Amino acid sequence: MTATSPDTLQDTPTDALTATRDHSLGETHVSRADAAKTRSAEDSLAFLADRAARLNATGEHAPHSLIAALDAAFARHPTLELLVLEDAEWQAHPDWPTLIATLGGPRVLRSVFYQQQWHWLGHAPTTPAQTPFAPELGHPQRPAKPSGEVYRRLMPKLGQTFSLRVIERERDLERFVRWMHLPRVAEFWEQAWPEAELAEFIDQRLADPHTLPLIGEFDGRAFGYFELYWAAEDRLAPYYPWAPFDRGIHLLVGEEDVRGPQFVDAWLGGLSHYAYLCEPRTTRLVLEPRHDNQRLFRHLGRLGLERLRDFDFPHKRSSLVMGQRDHFFSEIL
Q1: What pLDDT score was predicted for residue 6?
Q2: Which among 32, 135, 239, 309 has most CB atoms closer than 10 A?
Q3: The whole model's pTM is what?
Q4: Which residues pair with 147 in a beta bridge?
Q5: Which residues are catalytic?
């Protein structure tokens, strides 16, 4: 069985639900009062020249998680490039040693901050030792697939936590079958198959070393299916000049109440963020949606994904879409 290009979503705005927030360098659900502390700390920014601001610690309003407070400040003020923290104010915070050890000082550049794994990444990033070049393949060997949850981040603008975990057939098959039989999904994936065939498809994806099949969740509720794949081994490879660590994306949003720009920004931004964090040598993300998927194209540019050209697979006409790491971390996240 061979799947066709899988990229579907629609626009139906929905109000954000109750927020969760980060705690220390881990993440947990906390009270509205504690969430207000993070907002209060973020609101205490003192804006400086040249797209910079100082993040003030205001005693009782100091956030439980300094990393979360920095994330919230950058997210709510997209023009900010630098956050300054004063040693005397913050050095007693439990996150301070980690921040200084990671960044080298209390001057936090947006593009550098978001390229650290912090508590967001659920496993260690890939290293060169794990991916030696394989001459017989013509590309690097791929690392072993992770299991369980691989990414988690509170999305400050949305007020919900977005997470990714590896799909599990027993846990996810029923919803996966339901999603695949939705008319808007079946139109693009063309996989409205019986349950037994879709179970086999999940098993094949889990066994395929070049594809990582993922379930996306908001606040612990599954809403969509995503695939990250190594483009060099994919059917897309003959159609563009791939680089060894290019990562491709397939996507499916199954739940009706998480469709709309604010949700797309959260999950597509989070999925892109995970792809770049887990392999620091990935400099490009690629998609190959069907050329007439206008709902998807309306969102891509906002997330730094550029539609380059159309081309023909044997079974469909597609568009080559590409995102650049530098652009993502400097202009998008």
Answers
A1: 56
A2: 239
A3: 0.87
A4: none
A5: 288
